[in-house]
Design brief:
eight-stranded antiparallel beta barrel, nine-stranded mixed β-sheet, disordered N terminus, 22 strands, alpha+beta
């Protein structure tokens, strides 16, 4: 089915009665309080190439699918390579396995049980005094403190730690053999070896491959029958990044967690596991925060913020859940050689989907400020490991930072300004001004970023 046909079926005003298909009830955006015009504009912009490399956009509200659009040769029956979305699904499987009593050592001590009790077959690697404090909680939150680097080198480089682990006979053993370089629980470090440990726990506890466990206990209850889950060379199901799903089935996983682990009234995942999985456990640096293999944080748009938890894969594969807005959003893109995928996702959320769900969100109208007022903001602003400079240029302000294009600032009030990065990502800047009119700091909010910069000098 092409995008135009889907637009008629899902967005068209003639479709007044809800319909059921493939376990998804369909509805019009207006019937669940969404702005149809904004979602229609999103459809048109996706079709005209505003977001190159995009494959799919799906939106569900109130448990009903209200937008399902495909682009660039994708359609409803095309499976998407979800990349690291697989990690979040692996966390789902572990929660189900724990609820079934299949993970030794966990029920007694919960996820804070010593890892040596949970992984007794790896006791020799865990007897190091520095590792005796490791727990399953550290595995789930990627805060084990092990020496690991899979981000400074591309995945095409054989020196990348994940590539080495994935090609080894025992990826879990390879990861656990690494030395401790930070106190467990003290900091986040992205580590696919920790994610693959979830497959090991499920497979050894259940006595079956993790993809078959998923088929029986997760996918089948959700009516998901069309999937592929790659295996590592040693035969393990790749819970780091090997899952292929249709986007409409990705949306089911988001809806399952929005419903606290229920699907169509039936319990699939423990509510307590869902709750713990999607809340902040570890603070990251320069990224959203992290739960149990799920990302989470406040997403900023216009003059608002909305909490979301989400599964995330390379290139911009996303299952977003906005609990307060009763919203599930799936975005899928070309996985590789697509550096703008994340930027496009941010624009889609901030400019179309979230304002459609929250029509009162508004930037307000621009105002005109005189040169004297604008000049008070000129200077250098510094936060930890980050800085930028504001200059006055031809009657307006421009923010300059190394490695980024100039950011023109539009005044919305005397102290609040709006900028747009790459013509896609809106930035909200709110200045703190002293009684004498001197600017002291500025708070910058965009996407998941919320940072205050102190003014250190004037130029």
């Amino acid at each position: 089915m092409n995008a135009i046909t889907l637009a008629v079926a899902v967005l068209g005003t003639a479709a007044c009665q809800a319909q059921a298909t493939d376990d998804w009830e369909l509805a019009t955006p207006a019937s669940v309080g969404l702005d149809s015009a904004l979602l229609e504009q999103l459809r048109r912009d996706g079709a005209n190439g505003t977001f190159p490399n995009i494959h799919a956009v799906l939106v569900a509200r109130d448990g009903r699918l209200v937008m399902e659009e495909y682009f660039n040769g994708f359609d409803r029956e095309t499976r998407q390579y979800t990349a690291s979305v697989s990690k979040s699904v692996g966390s789902m499987l572990l929660g189900i396995a724990i609820a079934k009593g299949l993970v030794p050592g966990v029920e007694a001590g919960g996820v804070h049980a010593p890892l040596i009790d949970v992984l007794p077959s790896y006791a020799p690697a865990l007897t190091d005094p520095d590792k005796q404090g490791l727990t399953l909680h550290h595995v789930l939150t990627m805060s084990a403190g092990l020496e690991w680097d899979e981000q400074s080198l591309p995945y095409s480089d054989p020196r990348n730690d994940w590539i080495q682990a994935s090609r080894s006979e025992d990826p879990v053993g390879f990861m656990l053999a690494r030395p401790i370089v930070a106190e467990p629980g003290s900091s986040f470090n992205y580590n696919g070896g920790l994610a693959i440990t979830l497959a090991h726990l499920v497979e050894h506890g259940a006595g079956m491959a993790a993809d078959r466990f998923a088929e029986q206990y997760l996918f089948s209850p959700l009516g998901i029958t069309d999937f592929e889950w790659e295996h590592l060379p040693n035969g393990m199901t790749d819970t780091d990044g090997g899952l292929h799903l249709r986007p409409r089935d990705m949306a089911k996983l988001g809806q399952l967690y929005l419903n606290g682990g229920l699907w169509r009234g039936s319990r699939v995942v423990r509510e307590s596991w869902v709750r713990e999985s999607v809340r902040e456990h570890i603070v990251t640096e320069g990224q959203p925060n992290y739960g149990y293999q799920w990302w989470c944080g406040d997403f900023h748009y216009a003059d608002r913020s909305a909490y979301t938890f989400f599964a995330s894969g390379h290139g911009g594969q996303k299952i977003y859940v906005f609990p307060d807005l009763d919203l599930v959003v799936v975005l899928a893109h070309e996985v590789f050689d697509n550096p703008m995928g994340e930027v496009h996702n941010s624009a889609i959320l901030a400019r179309y989907v979230l304002p459609a769900a929250d029509p009162s969100a508004s930037w307000g109208d621009p105002v005109t400020l005189d040169a004297a007022t604008l000049s008070r903001y000129v200077g250098e602003y510094v936060a930890t490991r980050d800085r930028f400079t504001i200059v006055y240029r031809e009657g307006s302000l421009v923010a300059m930072s190394e490695g980024s294009p100039p950011l023109a600032l539009t005044p919305l009030t005397e102290t609040r300004f709006r900028g747009t990065l790459l013509d896609l990502v809106d930035v909200d800047l709110e200045f703190d001004v002293a009684a004498d009119g001197t600017a002291r700091s500025v708070r910058a909010r965009f996407t998941f970023n919320d940072r205050t910069y102190q003014k250190v000098n004037e130029r």
